[in-house]
Write the structure tokens for this entry.
Amino acid sequence: MKLRSTLLLASLCAALTAPLPAMSQQLAKDLFGAFRAPSKQDPMPIGSYAKGCAAGMLKMPENGPHWQSMRLSRNRNWGQPVMVEFLMDLSYSASQIGWGKGLYIGDISQPRGGPMITGHASHQIGLDADIWWLAPTRLDLTVGERESLSSIPMRSADQKSVTAAWGPAARNLLKVAASDSRVDRIFVAAAIKLEICKTATNADTAWLQKLRPVAGHDTHFHVRLKCPAGAKACETQTPTVAELSKGGNGCDETLTWWVTDYLNPPKTKPGKKDPDEEDPPKKKHPRQFTMADLPKQCQGVLEAN
Ligand SMILES: [Zn+2]
């Protein structure tokens, strides 16, 4: 571990003194993963959620009246000011609606955002946060307990339904979060949205639209905030949730697909492949991004104090 961080530091120092073209070829995850502190710049999410970095981030305090940050060793409890504020507000709401004592908060972003050495494709600009599906019964967990304790699944192993942990408090937590105007969308396991859809009324459309089914996410939900007002370098995500759900609540065939064809792909006839046909180019994973792939301003975030 020591050796690895020494190597990272060495490559970072080399990168900072090397001429630009060399740095543009460095893997962004190594450069951003090496920082322990944010840049002393005005706050700014730069680029998109899965291809960017972040200036002037704030640390989500490790402990608060209604929350604890988990897995502190990862150093991913950094967010845009709007994210820190949002999480503090949601933690308070959680404690008021019977969701235990508040929130256990998982990964947000690295101190300067950017691609990560392990895990997440997104979480790069300080506007994504994972919240555990374990309702806190204690808010005095030690640093060690925050490493060893695990969250619990809210989705069954066959991926089709919610677990016994589900109930009105969980639904209310999602409702409060998704009703917040700072929130762009929330990623949840499809089974969770299907459960809420069972009793949805017209009054639920606006917030329910923001719940988006994704793979995984059985033990946490993932809140994504909108670009803050005036954040010129922040790329708004398209399609929007309204477009994705065609103005409805999203309780449609695109949702049931997750518990039908997604789990049991229909067999297609083996077609004869045209030998001249090229495979479509594979999309780069953020772990393969070099500095040249990221917005130019990310260079400045690396070089800032
Ligand atoms: Zn996440």
Remarks:
- The chain has eleven helices and eleven strands.
